[in-house]
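pls read this stuff:
=====
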Amino acid sequence: MSGADAKKERAILAYSGGLDTSVCIKWLTEKYGLEVIAVVGDVGQEHDGLEAIKAKALATGAAECLVVDMRQTFADEYLSAALAANAMYENKYPLVSALSRPLICKHLVDAAHKLGARYIAHGCTGKGNDQVRFESSILMLDPSLEIIAPVRDWDLDSREAEMAWAAEHGIDVPATNASPYSIDDNLWGRAIECGVLEDPWIEPPSDIYTMICDPQDAPDEPAYVTISFKQGIPCAIDGEPMSYLEAIYAMNEKAGAHGFGRIDMVENRLVGVKSRECYECPGALSIIAAHKALEDVCLERNVLHHKLALEQTWAECVYNGQWFSPLKEALDAFMAHTQQCVTGEVKLKLYKGSCTVVGRASDYSLYAFELATYSAEDEFDQQAAKGFIDLHALSCKVWAQNRLAMGADMHQFARVANTTCEFDGGMGSAAA
């Protein structure tokens, strides 16, 4: 770098090569006079070569571009924690983008420290979740760093205007008016939004999907896949030992080939906006389904029931950008403790867009045939049930006796009111 360049303030930019971050380089250099160091993280996303993305960053005006392979760490430290929590935001979405952001932020902060940068920049919009995730993570890792959000600050009033600005400045971007989708993907899945998807009534066009075949075109014969787990982490597929990273790749391919893993949902963003989002997560959804099935036989009832509630808390915490928060850290400790005996095998049936658990086995299984069966081998003491029920209902029985003694009409608690609503000129009335 020249002496003049060395005097410039530096900004570390989270760079993907997409529309927003490509425009950000030019914007930061021209508007703020900053020297931009782009950081590209390989978290398993689709690309034609990270070196090509690096070349694009440099051609667009970045002074330097750091390319980091984050896949192994992403699987071992981030996706393993997500699997332990069976993380599904709103019980539907396996947190694709939210899981990669804190890992990327760690590398952004590390780069800022090593290169003496005062600023970190990102290409998030002002009404998305990622701005919260990036900035919250960065501030938790180093509160002294300053954050710049060009897309949130500039005066371009639409995505179309942004594409026009890019064209005027000679910036090559993948988004076009004909295909204006905003896409983010990683090992755990692929998120697609914008364009015609902003109308929640319109069926998603087939061209948005690249990981999963159309279920109608999937093989006519089902496929059976056995996933082996060791302490909650996949360690083999169909008996072939492999790392968690390799297992994710394998299940993305196997489940995707049978049309399983598409999600079309309206989700509630942290900023208060309802957004129509489409996802394809064949590996994530199939592995989570298998993991939950193994937990069903390995975890004690009360642990399993309380874990279900905490899983939702974990998912909301991560969705909301709180990966490095003390609550998330405490939840991780609980989740990790529950995985000690989640070891065994689960058999999945993949068929034309469905993934069904059809078998589970574990040396740590708490499923006892002699207690569950209704055959002659039954060892369950049915005579013990009467005393159990008497004690189980005792508190409410005493309450009911008291209410009756005080003259209450107990039948009112069992009534179902038949209510009809009539609308006339915008006003409604209800009659019981």
About this structure: The radius of gyration is 27 Å. The chain has a mean pLDDT of 90. The CA atoms of residues 9 and 193 lie 34 Å apart.
